[in-house]
Amino acid sequence: MESDEEEEYTLQGPVDNEGFPHGHCTLAYTSGDKFQGHFDHGAKSGKGCFHFYDGSKLEGVFDGGLLQGKGLYTYEDGSVLKGVYIDGELNGPAEEFNSEGLLTFRGQYSNGVRCGFCWIYSADGGCICGEVNEEGEMSGSNIAYIYPDMKLALIGSFVDGEMVKGQLAEVMGISEDRPQFKMVSDGGIYKCDVSTSSSISSDPQLPDPYEQQMVYVGASTIQGASEGLFMKVPVKEDKVVAFYNGLRLTHTEVDARDWSKNSNTISLDEEIVIDVPPPFHDTKHYCSSLGHKVNHSFSPNSKYDLFQHPRFGFIKCIRTIKPVSADQELTVEYGYDHHGCGADNPDAPDWYKEQMKSLKGQN
């Protein structure tokens, strides 16, 4: 992370009798990096900060020209790494946070490489933990993905943080920063099963164990709807309760179709749309995820959110935005485009337009 001491630079600040930086100085390197801090006869000594050309920076206390003790590295996107440095290299405990201040990593470093038992956290609430390999990657045969409730886990083979195959386990507790697991004997085997445009799942009848404890499909309480998704247990707000997996289509493909074929589609990102077409909309044919069963409401109790799932990959989830009681139906606002065709004529199916007109008539 540090600039090469042999690199040419321009100096602003005091010098000693031999012309070396001495006191508080600024060194501007030809690479575009810059260092500001205290010098003792040419050696960085005391508080200082490297400002790198890419917008990142490294700050801490220097001794003999090298960073020693606690240091803070701020990436160009605003995420940070807090760690312990020995002779300019990360050696010891470290934590990393994203630009929003959420913890993304906790573990150890040795000579600048992650080592030992580490935790990697996702913004959606899930995490991965285990012994990293020699390259510092979360790869091995005894890595665990832990669901957001910190009660269920999938333990097995992972490659660089992605599950290959895992078995269901219960989290019994955490001792000395390591989770204690109890394997579920009849929990089944879960494999990496990212959908494509033609395959929704290699095992469409294998339910997600976390979702299975949270929700069930039943007759909807909403007029005009057939089935809906209901809570099995009461939950607080900001709780992930279901997942929305499906075929991965392009926006161009979906936009070219009639609305009648888009009843179970949801935008994943600027390129991909998730689709649960017939016959997979029926749980007799597909029950690996149930998020597509959630109905629309202009006064919802939940929302769609992004989720990095160990089995399905990058998908959407259903996250509550208020407390939801057991046996209460989950709802989200579908969010059809109210701008492209005017606020009173959204780009949406007819039933949505009718609901919107009815709502306006009540106000």
TrEMBL record:
It comes from the Eukaryota. One of its GO terms (molecular function) is chromatin binding. One of its GO terms (biological process) is methylation. Residues 220-335 form the SET domain. Transmembrane segments: none annotated. It is an enzyme of class 2 (transferase). One of its GO terms (cellular component) is nucleus. It holds the Pfam family MORN. Keywords: Activator, Chromatin regulator, Chromosome, Methyltransferase, Nucleus, Repeat, S-adenosyl-L-methionine, Transcription, Transcription regulation, Transferase. It catalyses: L-lysyl(4)-[histone H3] + S-adenosyl-L-methionine = N(6)-methyl-L-lysyl(4)-[histone H3] + S-adenosyl-L-homocysteine + H(+); L-lysyl-[protein] + S-adenosyl-L-methionine = N(6)-methyl-L-lysyl-[protein] + S-adenosyl-L-homocysteine + H(+). Its EC number is 2.1.1.364. It is found in: Chromosome; Nucleus. The keyword Protease does not apply. This is Histone-lysine N-methyltransferase SETD7. It comes from Branchiostoma belcheri. The lineage of its organism: Eukaryota, Metazoa, Chordata, Cephalochordata, Leptocardii. The gene is LOC109465143.
